[in-house]
Design goal:
This protein is α/β, with parallel strands linked by helices. The protein has a single domain, classed as Rossmann fold. 30% of the residues lie in helices and 13% in strands. It is built from eight helices and eight strands. An eight-stranded mixed sheet has the order 1-7-8-6-2-5-3-4, with helices on both faces. The longest helix has 18 residues.
Length: 269
């Protein structure tokens, strides 16, 4: 799917109305190409991609492109959510909507509460801002974040413009999560109380039901220091799974590992 990086100018009025709150080396002069460097048997150091918390950041785009073949992307972040984790989820979600046609956001929330959020981004007439809707919906306090509210404002604008590619919000145990937008990618923001245990990836697949097709990418954090000193402050390091500390009894359960040099407790709305 071609990336839709910018909303179309003719649709700007609809967008504004809907968004309520907001080296190549130089040639060899001799004409003879230099010989290729000899291959080394030394193992390569773990590679990482620095990613800023912005959907337009090249590292974030690389992450979005890396997971684009999955039918479900799922987060398994142990413990309490942090501001940086919430920002990563929102930024990756937006990048996947724009670049790869993501169609469903699944939250660990009751059906009725998720429906309130879904109705808002669908463009229902309201005087409330997205933050008001998040606070009043009945979702867990850990999900009541500025990042979710900002993403909902953006999604309300997206849905107003790209009516052929709407994005939905569903609760994890709700029929909508297993039926909405078949053929399009879904993202599960993870369990509210998560310990990234061995069976979590299998359970995450279940939130999409048959539409997941067994093709899930599970993203979790590594606290072992594999990227210590490599990631700049305020940037994520995106690491190969082999560099992660394996989960007990299931070393293959992690697909992509992310690490941040410092996590800030999320203040909530």
């Amino acid at each position: 799917m071609a990336p839709r990086r910018c909303f179309l100018i003719p649709a700007a009025a609809a967008l504004l109305a809907a968004c309520a709150s907001q080296p190549v080396p130089a040639p060899d002069p001799s004409g003879i190409s230099p010989p290729a460097a000899a291959a080394t048997a030394e193992p390569a150091e773990p590679r990482f991609t620095p990613a800023a918390l912005d959907p337009a950041d090249p590292g974030l785009i690389a992450l979005a492109d890396a997971v684009s073949g999955a039918s479900l992307v799922s987060f398994g972040f142990p413990g309490s959510f942090s501001t940086e984790e919430n920002q990563l989820k929102a930024a990756l979600t937006q990048a996947l909507v724009e670049r790869h046609g993501l169609g469903v956001i699944i939250l660990d929330a009751p059906c009725a509460a998720a429906s309130v959020l879904d109705t808002y981004i669908a463009g229902a007439q309201t005087a409330d801002l997205a933050a008001d809707t998040v606070r009043a919906a009945g979702i867990e306090p850990m999900l009541q974040t500025a990042e979710l509210a900002e993403l909902m404002t953006w999604l309300r604008g997206w849905n107003a413009v790209f009516t052929d590619m709407p994005v939905r919000i569903a609760g994890k145990d709700c029929p909508l999560a297993q039926t909405a937008e078949p053929g399009r990618m879904a993202i599960f923001w993870g369990y509210t109380y998560s310990f990234a245990d061995t069976g979590e990836k299998r359970r995450a697949l279940g939130v999409r039901g048959d539409l997941a097709g067994g093709e899930a990418v599970w993203i979790t954090q590594d606290f072992s220091g594999a990227a210590a000193g490599a990631a700049e402050t305020s940037r994520w390091a995106i690491l190969p799974a082999r560099s992660a500390r394996p989960l007990p009894g299931d070393p293959q359960s992690v697909d992509i590992v992310v690490q941040h040099p410092g996590l800030t407790p999320a203040p909530g709305l």
